[in-house]
Amino acid sequence: MGASLPPKEANLFKLIVKSYETKQYKKGLKAADSILKKFPDHGETLSMKGLTLNCMDRKSEAYELVRLGLKNDLKSHVCWHVYGLLYRSDREYREAIKCYRNALRIDPDNIEILRDLSLLQAQMRDLSGFVETRQQLLTLKPNHRMNWIGFAVANHLNSNGSKAIEILEAYEGTLEDDYPPDNERCEHGEMLLYKVLILISLLEECGFLDRALEELQKKESKIVDKLTYKEQQVSLLVKLGQLEEGGKLYRDLLRMNPDNYRYYEGLQKCEGLYSKTGQYSSDEIDRLEALYKSLEQEYSWSSAVKRIPLDFLKDEKFREAADDYIRPLLTKGVPSLFSDLSPLYDHPGKADILERLILELENSIRTTGGYPGRAEKEPPSTLLWTMSLLAQHFDRRGQYEIALSKIDEAIEHTPTVIDLYSVKARILKHAGDLAAAAALADEARCMDLADRYINSECVKRMLHADQVELAEKVAVLFTKDGDQHNNLHDMQCMWYELASGESYFRQSDLGRALKKFLAVEKHYLDITEDQFDFHSYCLRKMTLRSYVEMLKFQDRLHSHAYFRKAAAGAIRCYIKLQDTPPKTTADQDDEMSKLLPSQKKKLRQKQRKAEARAKKEAEVKNEEATAGNVSKSGKRHVKPVDPDPHGEKLLQVEDPLLEATKYLKLLQQNSPESLESHLLSFEVNMRKQKILLAFQAVKQLLKLDAGNPDSHRCLIRFFHKVDSMDAPMSDNEKLIWRVLEAERPTISQLDEKSLVEINNHFLEKHEDSLMHRAAFAEMLYVLDPSKKAEAIKIVEETTINTVSINETTERWKLKDCMAVHKLLGTVLIDHNAASRWKVRCADYFPYSTYFEGSQSSAMPSSAYNQIYKNNENVSGEKRSESGQSVDVPSSNGKLEVFKELKI
């Protein structure tokens, strides 16, 4: 390194390297310029100067200098190494690996280059290369602990657990008997636990887990993390069938943490009383009840020991246990009680028992002031929380009118409890009045401007109501410097971006919707890149179990729900863009030429006003940003300007379906169990005329859920398309035809029936379901457009089911009815039928603004609208934590001025 330079310049070169490592870039540049004055063609100096400039955000100059340096000295490992570092900084990992390998051809024993190469191989999951590089590092420096551990981890990741165990045992053989010293006990204990983890995964298939247990117990004195030690020990005991010892150990663990549900589950396994389905015989229920009663006497302060029996108890015993569980929580005033009880609503009959129980408690508190059978009086707040719980209960059961009356009564009882307003907003959202829900959430927010959670909930409600601009203004109250866009993006606030994207999509603003969805996809790329720093950190700090778990998490990162939603949203945007491409300038000119002169003049005036308004808003935003970006020292922080704030450039793609395919492949690879992945695959490939890929999607849909209405639609649409295709002419078409003919008998739904017969059979199986009848009607119209009237009749003859005592029937869902309304209006194209359906649903969903129900805020005669008129002059000005003035309605539990909320 700098060997070809005289001593003075060689020292300067070392100064460049040191300055780069200590981030003193100007000092390094000065030293590099001093060398280049005398030796302007010195390759290594040119490369180091380029690397320094890269750290100063002068990338184009950096690449030029590094390439020039490499050209002047192709046989320098420093030049190749620097070139690799440059590529690595730009996340071009494959190119960086090539550069490192070229550097190692010149200097094969350079530890620094080998270490950098191993990090990139771990990042790119080149596991065989990772093993080879870590072995080379161990050979060169065997007295370094990190090299032993790195080689073991590399073999473990490469599915060679036995080799990893051998390496760790060989490393332990090099240690002295009194190792480790006190300052290294934690790291050594982590290594021993990691070794046991490998042994378990290795020996479980062979049935030799007793060796792993023996190894764990032998090293007990050297393991510092006693909790993890006991958890691993009890896990091995249960797998080996030593249930009595496992039960004792689980009881020891419960003494340490009696609220850990996993310990109770493990204890049930040891007692032979565990079922994955949650179904137990009467004898097992009696034994479980006795077990938990004994545990409750021992851990009376634990909430888990009282809550778990509610899952398996039935009838009167369930009622007694639920009564004992609910009473103290109502007295204490726990707002999350309903969330705790909500899983019980999936158990047949338990929702009815809970309803009778809570109503009985409410009646007793109203009449006697206390619980049934108790002389003690309850505080007034108990009635408040009982009514809140009842409101959430009736909301869950779809009885919104009763739910709203209960929550209104609770608000009237104590108007200062913020949680009540949030509950009411949630009820209104479920009932279909999104604007009113947003207004209630904003009223709750104004009662506590320092609560970030309530602020976020308010933002979410506003986005559901498509009030995006207002939601942005509310979100900015908790962002740094009042710059909501950059900060929410930098904080990776994905729920906000997804909700914004969905709102823009509903409003047909595809550019902004795409921008939000792709921002979420960018976050996942960043998360993938963020693992790079941990490849060296975890080996150095010996957090090996967490490191391996993190790598496994990264490998399945794109199966996360947020990514699935973002990718699906982006694909839907591209499909819509393909179906309705934006108008070109020529098309707009043609439309203008058809207008009358007076209409042209009005249109131009409107456009000029819109441009002026947009320009003024941009200037105001720039002024606010400039004023807010001045630090205490007086320096201005220049923030990058978004060149495409409305996502217009994202819409200017030549082939939207090609862009959609990129995200579709990720969905198919990482979320193959999701029905939506294959539905989108079908839609994209049908538009691309990729018949076999569309058929593959149909097969996957039928495999996952053959009874789903969307699966049925895809099946009928596909074979209707195939049957209407022309006879195959080319070799490719003939091959596709042969594949379809061979595969057709494997589809059990076809069974040599016609598509009409398949459709009729589908209706017979699901004649009581609204969405299945809608799917049948749509496919009936697709197969025979002349049967449009019959299709509409099938939909309109669907009867409304109400909740019965035994909970066997199913209520109509608001979103399903909205989908049927759109089907009647846009697919079957019968506006009279759509109007009749709207009137019918307005009666069924009186709070829905979509159907303009009589109780919704969309109707002038509704109660909320009357409240708005009576209180439109009542408003109070409150100040946010960030010092911004916000005009809000006064907090009285009702909805005022929700149509004119301004921030």
In short:
The protein is mostly helical and 903 residues long.
List the defining traits of the structure above:
903 residues, two-stranded antiparallel ribbon, 2 strands
Give the overall form: globular
**What class, by secondary structure content?**
mainly alpha
Round the Cα radius of gyration to an integer and report it: 34 Å
> Mean pLDDT, as a whole number?
87
**Strand arrangement in the largest pleated sheet:** 1-2
Which band does the percent of strand residues land in? under 5%
How far do the termini sit from each other?
Answer: 62 Å
Task: Please tell me about this protein's structure.
Helix content is 68%, strand content 1%. By secondary structure, the chain is mainly alpha-helical. The protein has a two-stranded antiparallel sheet. The longest helix has 32 residues, at 597-628.
List the helices and strands and how they pair.
Layout: H1 7-21, H2 25-38, H3 43-55, H4 59-72, H5 77-89, H6 93-106, H7 111-123, H8 127-140, H9 145-157, H10 161-173, H11 185-203, H12 209-218, H13 226-239, H14 243-256, H15 261-270, H16 282-298, H17 304-307, H18 309-312, H19 315-332, H20 337-341, H21 350-368, H22 380-396, H23 400-413, H24 418-431, H25 434-447, H26 452-464, H27 468-475, H28 484-490, H29 494-506, H30 510-530, H31 534-541, H32 544-555, H33 561-579, H34 585-594, H35 597-628, H36 656-670, H37 675-687, H38 691-705, H39 709-723, H40 731-743, H41 755-765, H42 770-783, H43 788-796, H44 814-827, H45 831-844, H46 863-871, E1 875-879, E2 885-889
Helix pairs in contact: 1-2, 1-3, 2-3, 3-4, 3-5, 4-5, 5-6, 6-7, 7-8, 8-9, 9-10, 10-11, 11-12, 12-13, 13-14, 14-15, 19-21, 21-22, 22-23, 22-24, 23-24, 24-25, 25-26, 26-27, 26-29, 29-30, 29-33, 30-33, 33-36, 33-37, 36-37, 37-38, 38-39, 39-41, 39-42, 41-42, 42-43, 42-44, 44-45
